[in-house]
Amino acid sequence: MTLTSFGPANRIARTAETHPLTWRLRDDGEPVWFDEYQAKNGYAAARKAFADLSQDDIVQTVKDAGLKGRGGAGFPTGVKWGLMPKDESMNIRYLLCNADEMEPNTWKDRMLMEQLPHLLIEGMLISARALKTYRGYIFLRGEYTTAAKHLRRAVEEAKAAGLLGKNILGSGFDFELFVHTGAGRYICGEETALINSLEGRRANPRSKPPFPAAVGVWGKPTCVNNVETLCNVPAIIGDGVEWYKSLAREGSEDHGTKLMGFSGKVKNPGLWELPFGVTARELFEDYAGGMRDGFKLKCWQPGGAGTGFLLPEHLDAQMYAGGIAKVGTRMGTGLAMAVDDSINMVSLLRNMEQFFARESCGFCTPCRDGLPWSVKLLMALENGQGQQGDIETLLGLVGFLGPGKTFCAHAPGAVEPLGSAIKYFRPEFEAGIAPTSAAVPPLARPIVVGA
Q1: Does domain 345-430 fall into CATH 1.20.1440.230?
Q2: Which segments constitute the NADH-ubiquinone oxidoreductase 51kDa subunit iron-sulphur binding domain (predicted)?
Q3: Residue 2: its pLDDT value, please?
């Protein structure tokens, strides 16, 4: 997968000053291996971090830059790092890279790992130095076989150059890094489920508190960050806080750049590094090229299957967390999907909820039973066999599975698109109610889970 450009946006060249994540990419899409990466100023930030900055300086720099998690939650990275214990006696601690990229319609981390594996390694090396972690793991989605191969080669190259292992850069600091492939569960994107899976346990989320910073991998302090988040660290350390903040568009409360994309029946589906604050319309029209001939934009999701649907009139929203929140949903991963006018929303939502129901860990009742219930109701509506009250039951499930009602964020993310689809396209759901059906009280229709 390569980055593409379309229309006026193609006139903007990728440079180190404007595209900290992607300026090193090769035009042919091949990986940037160690020698080329180092020739392109690679590991310069790591050398600066080891030679000129204290561990606390690195943490404070990342905090001052306002870097936020790029996996979808958007928690401030420097604040998260600051939660790691200061007690020097806690000498066993871990850094985990969450590379279990299983959000439907999201492939940004894959591109970074396949084409710029050393950028991730450098980001992890600097982060490990700041957090005093002696061992790191890249928890990688098992289906990403090319990324696994490229990361393992890059790890060996970094070891051979003395940038991983013992006494890195003569500092006395040791850091080992391992690539660990998962068994393929969406729930592993939740950091504590990822930790359980890494330890060889069932991938259930853990109760918090305690948080991983206090009790993580094998009971030791642990920091979990997303791939794209860690890949921002070298540029922040190398070029400074003020430069990083200046990258975003005016009006954006988030700093730096973000990998954004558009898929669906657009003319130029792809992935681009863009400043926070760019409008969704620019992303859709100037980069993705608008809809293909013969198709009309019906609605769109801003950042993965777990974000709510928006209408074409919402395209003027700025792409940052607060900008998308103003129009009623979350930015998520920042990779948008265009839904064309040939798509039936009931069928689309049935497909989505089937995925989320299958990927539930089954730990808590609302998620375990509520998501299959929504699937059965949507299947009935899809086949024209719905009953009066089914839509109200679905809306009731949206409320019962919302934020704060379940053990983790899986179910709230699953029902957010369902609630928004009913809000904007209720007639399509009503069309699935059988003409002779009797009224059924909301949430009273029976269900046999697994039937």
Answers
A1: yes
A2: 346-391
A3: 43
